[in-house]
Structure formats: C-alpha cells, structure tokens
Amino acid sequence: MKINVLGCISRRFFASSVIPKRAPFAVLSDKDIAFFEGTVGKGNVRTQDLEDYNVDWMKWYKGHSKCVVSPSNSEEVSAVLKHCHDRQLAIVPQSGNTGMVGGSIPVYDEVILSLKRLNKHYEFNSITGILQCDAGLILEELDERLRKEGFMMPLDLGAKGSCLIGGNISTCAGGIRLLRYGNLHGNVLGLRVVLPDSHGSIVDFGSQLQKDNTGLHMHHMFIGSEGQLGVITRASILCPPAPTSVISAMIGVSSFSGCCSILRDARRFLGEILSSFEVMDAATMQCLEENEQLHNVLTSAPQFCLLIETSGSDAEHDEAKVQRFLEYVMENEMATDGVLAANKQESAFMWKLRETAPLAITKDGYVYKFDVSLPLDHFYELTDAVRERCGDKVCRVVTYGHMGDGNSHLNITTKEPSEEVEKLLYPFVFDWVVAHGGSISAEHGVGQMKRDYISVGKSERIGELTRALKPIFDPRGILSPYKMVV
Ligand code: FAD
Ligand code: 2HG
Ligand code: ZN
C-alpha cells in the first residue's frame, strides 16, 4: 500500500540553523534541458508541477528545483552525471521521497535525479537466496515477488509501499525486523554505483558472492551515504526464506524496566525466531485513540505496549515457544495484560497501531522528531527528561520505536512551530544522547535536519577524513550539496 502524503506545508524551521550559502554551481539552462531530453527521452524530463519532488513527506523542506530528470538505466544516469560534472550543475538523487531528514530534497535549485524508472532488472537465485535488482524497485513489490518464490526482503518498514530499494540502501534503513535479519551492511553484497565524475564512471563495488575478501569492502561506504558519494543503480542482496509461521502478540507493561526484563526473557525463550520487539508508550496509544480513533487491543491501559513477533518455519514449535514465554511473563506478573493475535487480521491490526503512529502524531499540528539509539538503561529516561523540560509548552511527548534494536522514536508535538520549544530541545536532546552513550541518528540519517549537529560527540579527525573522501568520488562536489558532508 502506498503511504499517504501529509497535508499542509510547514517548512522545517530551526531558528538556530544556518543554511549554507548557495555555492557557485551553474544555473540550469535550456541547453541542459535539451541535453537531458536527448539522453533520457523528452517525456522523462519534467520542468513543471514539481511540488511532489520539491517537498518531503513531512512537508518540512521545500526545494526550488526547476527540473526532474528520470533515467531508466545506469548508462543514462552516467550520461546525466557526466554532463552535470562538466557543467558544474548540482544534482540530488531521489527515490521514493519518504526520507525523514530532508536528504532527498534540493536546498536551492539543484536538479532532481528521480530513480523511479530504474525498475527493470530483477534476477533471483532461489538456491543461494541472492537477488540482483535495479535500485528503483519499490520495497514492497520486491518483497511480494520474492514471496512467490518462498523468500522475502531482509528489511521491512512502514513506508514499504513507496520507498525504493536504492533509497533504503542509501539511508541504511532499519525498520521493524532488523532484530532478526540484521542491518543492510550484512545483507547487501554488492552495489553498482554511478559516480559524478568526468566519465560518469559506472563501478561495481562488492560482488554477488557471500564471501569476497578481495580489496577494501567499498560497497559498505555507499550504504547509508545518503547520495553524497555516488548514485546506486543496482544492488545484490542476500534474502532470507520467508517464514511459514508468524506469531504476533501485544503485552502491556507498567514500567520501562519491566519492558527490559521482558526483552531479556523474549531473547532467552524465543531465541532465533524473535523477529520484532517494538514499544509504544501510553502517550502514543492516547494519540492513536484521539487522532486516528484506533483503539488499543490491550484493556489495562498500560504505561507501555510491546508488540512482539516471531517468524519461523515450524508452527507447532513456534507456538510452543511463544506459549512458554507468555506463561512465564504472566506467572511472574511481568505484564499488566497480553493479547495473542488469533489470525492474520488481528496481527495486521497490531501492526496498524504501530505503523500509524508517525501519521497520528502529525495531526497535533507540528512535530519535533528524534530518531536516536540509546543503551536500554537510558532509553526511556530521555523521554522523561524531555517531558519534564517541556512541561505544558507542548501538546505531547510520545515515544515508540524499535526497542529490540535500542532505537527510540521520540516525538514532541506542538500546535504550531515554537521557537521556545525548539530552544528547549536543541541541542539539549543531542547532547543528552551523546552523554549517555547513544547516537543522534539511529536509522533516518542526517540529511538537512541534522547537518548542524553531525559532529556532536565525534572527533574532529572523523570530520576531516569524511571531507577528504568526498572529492575522490565527487570531484566537483555537485552531488547533494549542503547536507551530510559540508
Ligand atoms: P528518499 O527519501 O528518496 O532518499 C533518501 C536519501 O537517499 C536521500 O538523501 C537521497 O538523496 C538518497 N538516495 C535515494 N536514492 C538514492 C540512490 N539510488 N543512490 C544514492 N542516493 C540515493 N526509515 C527506517 O529506517 N526505518 C523505518 O522503520 C522507517 N519507517 C518509516 C515510516 C514512514 C511512514 C515513513 C514516511 C518513513 C519511514 N522511514 C523509515 C524513513 C524512510 O522511509 C527511509 O529512510 C527510506 O529508506 C527512504 O527511502 P526512499 O526511497 O524514500 O528514499
Ligand atoms: C517508524 O519506525 C519510522 O515508524 C518513523 O522510522 C519514526 O515517526 C517516526 O519518528
Ligand atoms: Zn523506525
């Protein structure tokens, strides 16, 4: 299912943020447009009605691009990037445009390179489980195709109906099953990348092999690089067999330390079949109720709801494990109540609650969004600290997230953007996270949103090395300027 796009545009504002000045890139000319049309076909160069491309999913960022170019293969991407290099025209790769940090949106008038037409090549080996495919294929469609052969994509996220695999790799997307299938650094074996250099070089990094220790493992550099180094046009991905038995349950818990105990025991009892361990706090459930009229399946009005899922290949074995685990939790009074999904519909409703949370909070008006990794000892302390700091200046402070991976989605809502709230949150939250051993970006990336904070808690040398790396791949700095590498 394609995800909804939000309503009004409210440009992300950071009173404190200094947007870098426009660099001396060329200005798009009629000759450039003619070149693009000659390369990718007239119908695949847009110069009008660009709103959907210039604005992000959250409606926080608005670019001013005058042109969207949509190539259909690596050779066309190469010709476009070579032209942009030679002309010194800035260009931003864009896939499904579901990113949450403004990475896919131009800051000024950069050309937009839409990768949606890069969707032809699909080759799957059902013995090795290795998929080779074009970067512009939609995650959900890839998953559906693989399921017909008994396999699945190793990642899953709420935006699956709209995001493209190239966008997922470029953000190193995490999602709801990372606990079981690992992150993309483990699953992506190789990448075809087009570089914005004088040749528009097309380079195959990594391979289609599970073991390949020849040279530096350079494909990893592009995973999570947010379009700063090159354009991913094709990927080789190791895909797991699809489970034949999936069990979902929701458990109510009265304290966060109680959630941690349940996570420890879930790992112990469920072992290899544990595939999701998600948390939603009471404020999230209240928001779902008020803004989306979605009612909790748990009736004890707990402080925390855990959504736990197992994925395995033997229903009897999995059910016995889950049963033993739930009995243990209940007998030891670790939960306020619990519900085991009786069928696919009930399971889908549990996931609907979790996946609607990002949309539900936007209905309060304005959202301050944080996506952080934290050691579990401090996971919910941050929410408490922010609640205390913001008091009644905000509508609500909600936390949901991928607790099994230590990834908290802390969201603070207000009716309208507020400079006062912004000053309470920035840099407070980022400093707090780093001081408690966390990361200020768990899975959404840096984009435009965290550009000013990228060095928090990192040594200067890391910044120097990153900046030294960029021109090796992008000698004229034309690819997605003013973002992660500034
Ligand atoms: P885009 O948003 O188009 O681009 C993302 C970044 O990658 C940009 O910097 C862009 O320039 C760059 N880029 C895109 N394609 C390429 C390419 N081929 N080559 C080089 N650079 C490229 N994220 C998670 O990690 N986990 C979640 O659970 C999750 N859930 C979400 C739920 C919802 C409802 C929404 C709206 C978003 C969610 N996201 C989540 C964020 C987002 O979906 C992911 O970041 C996703 O991976 C972005 O993919 P995309 O195709 O939309 O990429
Ligand atoms: C999710 O896990 C997404 O639902 C979005 O990563 C997180 O809304 C958010 O903050
Ligand atoms: Zn997430």
TrEMBL record:
InterPro entries: FAD-bd_oxidored_4_C (IPR004113), FAD-bd_PCMH (IPR016166), FAD-bd_PCMH-like_sf (IPR036318), FAD-bd_PCMH_sub1 (IPR016167), FAD-bd_PCMH_sub2 (IPR016169), FAD-linked_Oxase-like_C (IPR016164), FAD-oxidored/transferase_4 (IPR051264), Oxid_FAD_bind_N (IPR006094). Residues 61-242 form the FAD-binding PCMH-type domain. The keyword Disulfide bond does not apply. PROSITE patterns: FAD_PCMH. The keyword Cytoplasm does not apply. Keywords: FAD, Flavoprotein, Oxidoreductase. It holds the Pfam family FAD-oxidase_C. One of its GO terms (molecular function) is FAD binding. Gene3D superfamilies: 3.30.465.10, 3.30.70.2190, 3.30.70.2740, Uridine Diphospho-n-acetylenolpyruvylglucosamine Reductase, domain 2, Vanillyl-alcohol Oxidase, Chain A, domain 4. It catalyses: (R)-malate + A = oxaloacetate + AH2. Its cofactor is FAD. It is an enzyme of class 1 (oxidoreductase). Catalyzes the oxidation of D-2-hydroxyglutarate (D-2-HG) to alpha-ketoglutarate. Also catalyzes the oxidation of other D-2-hydroxyacids, such as D-malate (D-MAL) and D-lactate (D-LAC). Exhibits high activities towards D-2-HG and D-MAL but a very weak activity towards D-LAC. Belongs to the FAD-binding oxidoreductase/transferase type 4 family. This is D-2-hydroxyglutarate dehydrogenase, mitochondrial. It comes from Steinernema glaseri.
